[in-house]
Amino acid sequence: MGRKKIVILGAGYGGLRALKKLQDMHPDVDLVIINRNDYHCEATLLHEVAAGTTEAEGICYPINYVIDRKQTLFIQDTVLGVDQKAKKVILERHAPLVYDYLLIALGFEPESFGIQGISEYALAISDIPSVKRIRRHLENELVKWREDPNDEHLTVVVGGAGFTSFEFLGELTDHLPKLAERYHIDQDNMHVVCIEPTPNVLPMFDRRLADYGSRKLRDRGVEFVIGRVNRVVPGHVYYKNGDNLKVIHAGTFIWTGGVRGSSVIAASGFRQHRGRVPVNADLTVPDAGDIMIIGDCSAVIDPESGQPFPTTAQIAIQQANYAAYNLNALVRGKPMKNFVYKTKGTVCSLGKNDAMGQVLGKNFKGYPASFMKKVIENRSLVQIGGVETMLKKGRFNFNR
Ligand code: FAD
Question: Which residue segments constitute the domains of the chain, with CATH numbers given?
Fold first, then answer.
């Protein structure tokens, strides 16, 4: 019998962490990891590149930092689908790749919920090209305003008032004074609007923290509007408040209203909802014991709420630890472990030195929360890239 092959799809938080753990276990198998790009991107920091406060290189590092060439082959390609019957991964540029065991960790895509114009005209915070586009677009609008002083060019609308929206708005409003100065614009002329269907922003946080976050953003000039985005066309965002259809004229519209799992999941015939597969307790796919799914493509039910846990890097990394253990167990014919999620809390940044969140059951806000956020980011760099990567890419700007 030939050597078995474990194939990992996606080198984000889940995929790369699982590879690192597997390599440490030295299983007697061939390891292959496939990713669209040759770099790993810290997706939790994408909003900073979008706002223009961090360069893309600052939140990425080469996948090669993690790969042990003696054990692992890296293939840079786009996954198109999985042929479960033939046990093959279908790739854009390479021949189909046969696997014995498959770990899918392909992450998220923006979810338009079928709202007209979102897919075509909205900007989204989803990967490096998308956030570079946002930054370019925002700055181009400021340039255009100097030639055509139409308020539309100075109006930024963000659809959704969840975690990503708050992190982006925090970063953007922190950076606005610099942008205004660079493009010779009076900051008071700039208009930043956040649209959300209910006044209940940031539902995952304690109300006092959510109120702190929205107060901070309001103080920096963000206008919160209650409404449901209804349609988007270039330069116009239509939203509904009750039966009233209203419109905002805006040169920039950024959609943060929701994400779904990779479209590869539906294309591969998995039983899924919004690109997420409800996985077994050991992270295998029901009726496919040779396939595990983790991260934003998986759905794990929170026994307390009966709802799937929110998709986060935190859960993806914890699942990766179990997936590595279970893949190694499968290869060796040993029993697998059931995944148990231990939440360590969540911190939402609100710009350079401000944040709010809950860690180990305690509420934090302001500078202490921001300090904690940087520690969390450095920890995830160590967990995936190792100490050297953390020293190269870590966040050490702890000064106020
Ligand atoms: P990802 O980390 O997204 O990795 C997926 C990988 O697959 C990527 O490398 C991608 O290039 C690759 N890929 C995708 N499709 C293909 C394909 N077809 N072919 C080949 N390769 C492909 N979570 C937290 O825990 N804390 C936070 O503070 C936090 N903040 C966030 C802030 C923002 C702005 C955003 C957008 C998200 C944030 N999240 C946060 C959520 C977190 O980023 C995701 O839950 C996490 O990235 C999911 O990890 P993953 O391993 O499933 O996928």
Answer: 4-110+260-343 (3.50.50.100), 118-257 (3.50.50.60)
